[in-house]
Each structure stands twice: as C-alpha cells, then as structure tokens.
Amino acid sequence: MFGRNWYSKIMNILTSFDPRVLALLSAVFAAFANIMARTLLKDLKSKDILGINFLIMAATMTLVSPYFYTFQPNALSTNAASFVKPHFFVILIAAIDTAANYFYFKTFEKTESSVATPILSLAPVFTFFFGWLFINDTVSLQSLLAAIAMLITIIYFSLDKNVSFKDLKSQTLTPALISCVLFGLSAIPAKYLLDDLGTVNAPTLYFLRAALIGCFSILFFKSSLKNITKYHYKVIFLRGLLVITQWVFLYQAIKSTSAGVAVTLGNVTPIFVFIFSIFLLKEKPTPKKACAAILVVLLSFYI
C-alpha cells in the first residue's frame, strides 16, 4: 500500500505539469542518452547491444514494478476479441520499436551523435502523418506550423558542413530515416493504449515494451556478448536509467496531448546538447547556434 501511495504521489506531480514540459524534459534525458549511445557503439555492434540493453532496463523496472504496474483491458470490452486487442497493440509497439531501435543504434555505429541526432529528430513528421491517418489525432494549424519550423531549425542548427552527402547517405541517412518512420509510427498505438483505451499507464507501457524488445532482439538478431565488458555493462545500466525516464515522460506527454506535438518537443535534443555544452563544458556559442536555440525555445511556447 505504501508503495502504491508513493507512486500515486509521483504521478500526481507529473500530471500537474503541462504535457509540453514533460516532452521537453524527455528531450533533456534523450540528449544524454544519445551521447552515451555513441560511446557504447564505438566498441560494439548494434545487434550485440540491442537485446541486452532492453533486458537490463526491463530487469531494472521489474524491481519497482509492484509500485506502478497497471494493465487492464478496456472497461467497456466484454468479448474475447476486445480483451485481446490491448495485448495486440503492446506487441505491435514492441515489434515496431525493435526494428526502430536496431536502425537507431545502427546510425550511431559510424556516425557522431552531432550528425545523427538531427536526422533522428525527424520522427515527428511521421507521427503527425500517421496520427492523422489512423486515429484522427490532429492539431491546430498554428501548432503544426510551429512544429515544422522547429524541425527545420533543428536540422539547420545541427548540419555538419564537413560531412559529404555520399558518406551521410551510406552511413547515416538510410538507417536514420527508417528509424524515424518506425518511431513515428509506434507513437500512434501508444497514444491509443494510453489515452483512448486507458489500458496502461506510462511506466507500465515502457516496461512491457522494453521486455518484449529485449526478447525479440535476442530471438531475431545474432547477438554476441563476448565483446561486452564490465565497463560497457555499467554504461548500459546508467544509460538505461536515462532512457527509462525519457520514455516515461514522453509517454505521459503523449497521453495528455497530441502525439505529434509530444514527439516534436521530445526530439529537440540537439538544442539541449548545445545548452549543456555551454554551461558544463564552457564552450563558446556561435551566433548561428545561439539564434537557432532561442528560436526553438520560443516556438515551443506556440506549438
């Protein structure tokens, strides 16, 4: 009982926040997670890290799952087919995100995070489209235009003039775009489960997602653990805490607002990398990046 009360207090605090703020906080944690992903993939391959990465996160969440776990079929459902539907959507999300994460990690194998992150930030484009197509998740014209302006600004902000298009196409563009399409798509059944059906809460959905992705990855990819050292396991665990927080915040935002808006704000990670580098690494901001960062912050108030 104490555990449930503790969890309820935390969720009450989270739900008191504007969902846009939660999505932006998600982007903060994602910024750190992207940097750590590049650190891991300098030594390891995507297929080797994918399964163990998610199983470690699932195991971590298992320890506290009695405090948050909630999975109930739609209260209005009375037949067997309706009972199965929520389970089907959880499996669908995990299947889509298994492939999305494979291509996400593949992007970082030969590409610096500063190059890969802006391309990976295009996922909201597909979320807006799939949301309109499948669940009538639409936004005002003002919000849509603000989101598009944010995406264009982030890409301009992060472009590396020293990277040739040939290298970008072969090493980054293809896997990053595939990852974007899949992540954009998976937000739609997540929105359906969290909001329309009310079947799960945000941490439960990520817990189930992480466990299934870990299992799918072990089954479908020929992983090898021989190259993973104790140092790598420590980084995987610490990064996992960041990723869990990132996605719980993002799912809570998706539940409370448009999926496209939440995913757009959750993908402004390059801006936070830039801000952190100024205050933590004492790097000098360029006028271009400073103006872009200010513009993205201002646009976030209008989305």
Describe this structure in words.
The protein is mainly α and 303 residues long. The protein contains 14 helices and no strands. Helix 6 crosses helix 9 (165-197) and helix 7 packs parallel to helix 9. The termini are far apart.
Order of helices and strands: HHHHHHHHHHHHHH
Distance between termini? 39 Å
Mean pLDDT: 83
How many helices in DSSP terms?
A: 14
Strand content: under 5%
Kindly name the structural category: mainly alpha
The Rg value, from CA coordinates, equals 19 Å
Tell me the helix content.
over 70%
Q: How would a textbook summarize the main sheet?
A: none
Summary tags:
single chain
Short summary:
By secondary structure, the chain is mostly helical. It is 79% helix and 0% strand. The longest helix has 33 residues, at 165-197.
Topology:
Blueprint: H1 2-16, H2 19-40, H3 46-62, H4 65-68, H5 80-109, H6 113-120, H7 123-134, H8 141-158, H9 165-197, H10 202-220, H11 230-256, H12 259-265, H13 269-280, H14 287-300
Helix pairs in contact: 2-11, 2-12, 2-13, 3-10, 3-11, 5-9, 5-10, 6-8, 6-9, 7-9, 7-12, 8-14, 9-11, 10-11, 11-12
